[in-house]
UniProtKB/TrEMBL annotation:
InterPro entries: Zn_peptidase_2 (IPR007395). The chain crosses the membrane at residues 15-36, 126-148, 154-175, 204-228. It holds the Pfam family Zn_peptidase_2. This is Zinc metallopeptidase. The keyword Membrane applies. It comes from Enterococcus alishanensis.
């Protein structure tokens, strides 16, 4: 019998790794929301909205092939290099807060990366399909391997597939930090925010970056758990 396997056992000690990951990501999410909420109350002295700031930055950087649109949701802002569209959430697009301008500038940072053919961004885009496929297949492969009399080959393939998700998140880190760096540099050189407002925007972007770090840490802990439970011929009779 296969009693006490990690994913099935109520008293699996490695489950603490999952709990730690949830605590880390939960804390990071709470921090970014509280930081954004704090500086969303601070109106920029120029009075420009997130949408206006984004269009100004794109024009200032000589990027004329990227559109700016508003989407539903809260902090769902993103840049799509495939259709050259910068999407700002409702809480960002029409807000004149320092937080909104900072977030809009960050997404513009991604557009600048795309225009300058930033290599880490290209690599991240290339591995998205593989990482998504790996995340989808990882657990089914591991479970099939377990039920097939502990087929270590299938289990190892499943663990490797899951590791692709971690690889994607690791590559995402420099992309996100660089986008924020570019955003702050652009804001500092322009006339959208003064020095005090720029410092506030930096805090918002730093908090947002922590969510990516937390996500990578949580995925690493989950991968470590899979290796402990299923790697190295850890068969239990």
């Amino acid at each position: 019998m296969y009693g006490g396997y990690g994913l099935f056992s109520l008293f699996d000690p490695t489950f603490i790794l999952v709990i730690i990951g949830l605590v880390i990501t939960g804390a990071a999410s709470a921090y970014v929301k509280s930081t954004y909420a704090k500086y969303d109350e601070v109106r920029s002295r120029k009075g420009v909205t997130g949408t206006e700031a984004a269009r100004y930055i794109l024009q200032n950087q000589g990027i004329n092939d990227v559109g700016v649109t508003q989407i539903s949701g809260d902090l769902t802002d993103n840049y799509n290099s495939g259709n050259k569209m910068l999407s700002l959430s409702e809480s960002t697009a029409q807000s004149t807060s320092v937080a909104a301008i900072g977030v809009a500038a960050h997404e513009c940072g991604h557009a600048v990366q795309d225009a300058k053919h930033y290599i880490p961004m290209k690599i991240r885009g290339a591995i998205v399909p593989v990482a998504n496929l790996g995340s989808t297949l990882a657990f089914p492969l591991i479970l099939i391997g377990v039920f097939m009399s502990w087929n270590q080959t299938l289990i190892n393939i499943g663990i490797f597939a899951f590791s692709l998700a971690l690889l994607f998140q690791i590559i995402t880190l420099p992309v996100e930090f660089d986008a924020s760096r570019r955003a702050l540099k652009i804001l500092g050189q322009g006339d959208l925010l003064d020095s005090e407002e720029l410092a506030a925007a930096k805090k918002v972007l730093f908090a947002a970056a922590l969510t990516y770090v937390a996500g990578a840490m949580a995925t690493f802990l989950q991968l470590l758990r899979l290796v402990i439970l299923f790697g190295g011929n850890n068969r239990r009779n």
